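Quarterly update from the structural biology core.
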Amino acid sequence: MDVCRICLSPDPVKDVLKIQTDKNMDNKSFIDIIMFCLDVQVSDTKISTKICLKCYRKIISFHKFKTLAMKNDAYLRSQNCELNNGASYKVDNEIKVEIMSISDINEDNVKDEMEIKNEEFMSHDYQSDDELLSVMKKIKYEFVEEETKENEPVKKKKGRPKKPKKDKSDNIEEKRVCDECGLVVRNLKDHMQRHLPDTKRKRFPCNLCEKIFASASAKYKHVKRKHLGIKKHCKVCDKNVVNLKQHVLVMHNSEALPYECIACKRRFITKSRLEVHMLIHTKDRPHACEQCGKRFRTKLTLSMHTRQVHDKEKTHLCQFCSKSFFKKHHLQIHLRSHTKEKPYGCKECGKYFSSSTTLKNHALIHSDVKTFNCTVCDMSFVRSGYLKAHMLSHTKEKRYACQFCNVKFHRSDHRKRHEYTAHKRHLAIETSDT
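Predicted structure, tokenized:
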């Protein structure tokens, strides 16, 4: 059996029969040391004679401790010291002082004993008065020191009592797993509010506008961002952000993020965001829209779809052309069409774009890697959107009809091109001639 003889661990390092001991072990073999410390006989070679490094260190440490304890006990016994109450001992000048038990001391016998000791010490010849006073003080406080400590009132510290510090390991025990979504959360009771119907869920309305939020933290972030305008300036990208530390970590130092996706090596700041991202690499779309039947991976994307497509929610208005948008980010990109600002440049060809998304899509042109392959023909594409548009060519379905002549097309961009070339361009030429 190749296991540790003491703790049965599967990785023993040392063989007891081959371990050499030094002179500090009183020339004992390691087998004798184990017998001395643990009362375990290891001489039988049929059983494992190996031990792990951890047990080896513990046995050496315990042997030193036990040897020291036995030597000190033998020394005390040889001195024949009597440590019971009433035992006598010698002072520096060979004066014997009787020590009484503290329970027998009272005010009368303390005074009598002090007078006896004073007479006894006054009869002795001392070299100076200071030496005499020091010895008298020593005897005086010898009797009353313990009594005064018992009668001394306990001083109470002012202020509120300090709360005991929580151990960091307690935070791990407080985390619970949600049975509904499988996420690990600190406060399971508050987290379960998210799985309740909208009518039973607690809401937090904003005091400054009509918006309502699902959590107090979301309301706080909204007030801080929208109404108070509390933002910090990022020196790297010259932007004003609410959380500067998180912005720098996510946008400019993504390699330091703690959670990494195994499939695409992308990193995230929290475990929950990683779990949401992992759904991209699966085909599961459990959340379906009740109005159009389209399916989504998360409830958040379903909610965004409902507000944007079906509710037609557009709260962000352009100050130049009065065009409205669902997201503020879309409005900011649209404003660059008026200002002609293109801050994102391609490193390969030097071309500039108004958004990072268009730059990212443009950068795929310079790469030869085409990971999205068509299952019908041999064509491959750099983006999933290109493949999705290509797959319509293999079907006979034509969903996009022209608003002028009702001619149908496979793709919406083909319909848009037809409407411009066949109808809108001729109308523009006719109006310009008149």
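The mean pLDDT is 76.
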